[in-house]
Design a protein that fits this description.
Chains A, B: One of its GO terms (molecular function) is oxidoreductase activity. 2 copies of one chain form a homodimer. The first copy, chain A, is about 35% helix and about 20% strand. Chain A has one domain: NADH Oxidase, CATH 3.40.109.10. Chain A is built from 8 helices and 7 strands, in the order ααβααβββαβαβααβ. Chain A is globular and about 55 Å long. In chain A, the strands form 2 sheets. Chain A has a 4-stranded antiparallel beta sheet, sandwiched between helices. In chain A, strands 3-4 form a two-stranded antiparallel ribbon. Chains A and B meet through helix 1, helix 2, strand 1, strand 2 and helix 5 of A and helix 1, helix 2, strand 1, strand 2 and helix 5 of B. Strand 7 of chain A pairs parallel with strand 1 of chain B.
């Protein structure tokens, strides 16, 4: 599966995509730590680093509960990934002088996720992000305090064979296209 | 300037940082296009690609207006970057069957920005993101329609000598630290 892109685009950026077939193997904790280290090196407003990642390894005490907070469709395939992660952001910049809303808490956490996805690929893993999440249930399962937002969930794992997927998903196991640059970037005022 | 990180973290992720000294040189349009192509290859919910980038090259017809939408402090140094960009997200998933709020419009746009920052570095440029923006003025300058959100601004350019900065900023021209992985990622339920 290949994607058409300028040869000048970083290979990890071009080659990252979101399969649904995972082989059930574990992600070693030391690899996971490198992935989160990469995430934490993203830029953030005032270097506040609003991202948090709550994870469960496949088969550990929390995995089933984490999985149950995905929509049923995503549970069917995410169960075979090595790790299931919820990306959470801190909605406030907190200090002794009071808490202020952080304009970019979601945005910055998305930047951290992008780093994580690229780093995972560099270590031989694939990722697949999901907003197909029961967000209320996720907050419950995570025992999330007020002032934090569940942004999305993602899995990390080794790619499996797509023959393991049901027909409908097997057909969707493809690298997706992107809008042309001319539709997302433009000189001067806004064009929608 | 160096940062302590695992040798397994991707070099572009480790080496990306946010200087304020830029040398005033232009960013060729073909390089800018590659940066936005990389941005557009980020993951997004349902592949909706909610990101938009409105930019001005230093010295073009829009640059001064774009610059005026930053807070005065950021104007003082951002004026020397080659390109000034506003990252905007589409708050809705729009279709013929109606528009639905997109849970991850900011988050996904943050992922695109992360790709852009890494790609820029790979091409020899530096970036610096800002939420020190007059968001109301930015929406005005961009002539932004309802339903789109200005997430942040960032500059792209070639690094300049920090001696060009005023004393106060020269001292801040350093690579920032990050929280340890143990503070941002944890197995199981949430810890703040």
């Amino acid at each position: 599966m290949t994607r058409t892109a300028s040869p000048r685009v970083l290979p990890n950026i071009v080659n990252r995509w979101s399969p649904r077939a995972f082989d059930g193997s574990a992600v070693p904790q030391e690899d996971l730590d490198v992935i989160f280290e990469a995430a934490g090196l993203a830029a953030s407003a005032y270097n506040y680093q609003p991202w948090r990642f709550a994870y469960a390894h496949r088969g550990d005490a929390n995995f089933d509960a984490f999985l149950s907070a995905l929509v049923p469709f995503n549970q069917t395939w995410a169960k075979d990934a090595g790790v299931l992660v919820f990306a959470v952001s801190d909605e406030f910049m907190r200090s002794d002088r009071g808490d202020n809303p952080n304009h970019s808490h979601s945005f910055d956490t998305g930047a951290a996720w992008a780093n994580a996805a690229l780093q995972a690929l560099a270590l031989g893993f694939h990722t697949h992000g999901m907003t197909g999440v029961d967000f209320e249930k996720a907050a419950e399962v995570l025992n999330l305090p007020e002032g934090y937002r569940v942004e999305m969930a993602f899995v990390i794992g080794r790619q499996g064979d797509k023959s393991q997927l049901p027909d409908m998903l097997r057909e969707r196991e493809i690298v997706s296209d992107r809008k042309p640059v001319s539709e997302i970037a433009f000189a001067g005022p806004f064009k929608d």
